[in-house]
Amino acid sequence: MYFDGLKKAEKRKLEAEVVSNDARLRLTRLMRSRCAARASEIELIRRNQFVNIGRTVLGLPIHRLEPDDWGTYADEEFGWHNAELELVMRRPDTAQLVEVLGDMLQQDMLPIARVNAILADDNVSVRFETRGDEDDIGVRLLAADELGEEEPEPEHPNVRLLVERMEAAFEHRDYAGVLHASATVFETLAKLVFGDPTVETQSLGGFIAGYRKRSLLPETLLDFIQDTYNRRNREPLAGHGATRPPSVKAADAAVLVEMTKTCVRLERRLARPEIGDEEPSPRASQAASRRGARPSPPKKAPARKPTSNRRAKPRAAE
């Protein structure tokens, strides 16, 4: 069947899934390579298609390319599309990203093997596959045991797998196990946010200060994460063996489950690139104010006859 998006149940399962910035960058590079063309106008048209699929999934207005009277495009069009292309894979949350990729794969705009390889390397539980005689695109979410089999580094499993372990522990009334899984979710999430392979072999306590600087979560949630990690290390049967019973109660475990999933979702949403870390320049702020924060590029200059038959390829946006 033709790709028609994710079901509600699939979207709920992906709420705790994290696609790292490194994987999103690799997907962006793949997208750039598929746009490349000898003629700059053809490359612009391809970029426009990628950009509009991404904007459609997010519910943003699409941008229609309109050449001037001589069949050429204003330089502003090239600059705007260069910038927008870099955001296609970085704006969406995980469920939206899967739908963006599914739409692109259905249109044969990306190679399915390369996309699946990038997702597998990032230990994401999503896999795309072709179905039926028409090679329509389908989505398969790996179960926890399948994900564990594919995982190249068992000590750092995917966030969704850990969330499933946490929920399973709660269902079995293993509240110390809930605390252990929650702290491990936070440790894994912190490593994804930190984005430095040197911390892969460290516990959260070894790089918590660096994580707090990089995270966009409010201080109260960062304190909760650190307190949960510290409690895991002290609690009997959560961080170590002990003869005395754990003190984690059912109410404590219920809060941990919901707060852990909330922190995962917020960390991803706050890390979206359009929420910039740097203050915009005065010129950029004034320009945005004049445009009224419109998503489309500035108006094209009046049509003019080209002075030669050759058009220099515009430079990429800096």
Explain what you see:
The chain is mainly alpha-helical. Helix content is 54%, strand content 4%. It has helices spanning 8-13, 21-35, 40-57, 75-87, 94-106, 112-121, 144-150, 159-171, 175-194, 204-214, 219-234, 250-270, 282-291, and strands at residues 126-131, 136-141. Helix 9 packs across helix 10 and helix 9 (175-194) packs parallel to helix 12 (250-270).
Précis, in short:
This protein has helices at 8-13, 21-35, 40-57, 75-87, 94-106, 112-121, 144-150, 159-171, 175-194, 204-214, 219-234, 250-270, 282-291; strands at 126-131, 136-141. By secondary structure, the protein is mainly α.
Question: Layout of helices and strands, plus pairs?
Answer:
Elements: H1 8-13, H2 21-35, H3 40-57, H4 75-87, H5 94-106, H6 112-121, E1 126-131, E2 136-141, H7 144-150, H8 159-171, H9 175-194, H10 204-214, H11 219-234, H12 250-270, H13 282-291
Antiparallel strand pairs: 1-2
Which regions have little confidence, pLDDT < 50, spanning 5+ residues?
149-156, 274-296, 298-318
Q: Averaged pLDDT, please? A: 81
Strand order of the largest sheet: 1-2
Main beta sheet, described?
2 strands, antiparallel
> What pattern of helices and strands is seen along the backbone?
HHHHHHEEHHHHHHH
Helix content: 40-55%
> How many angstroms does the end-to-end distance come to?
42 Å
Shape: elongated
**What is the beta-strand fraction?**
under 5%
**Total helical segments:** 13
| Helix vs. strand class | mainly alpha
**Count the strands?**
2
Question: What oligomeric assembly is this protein in?
Answer: single chain
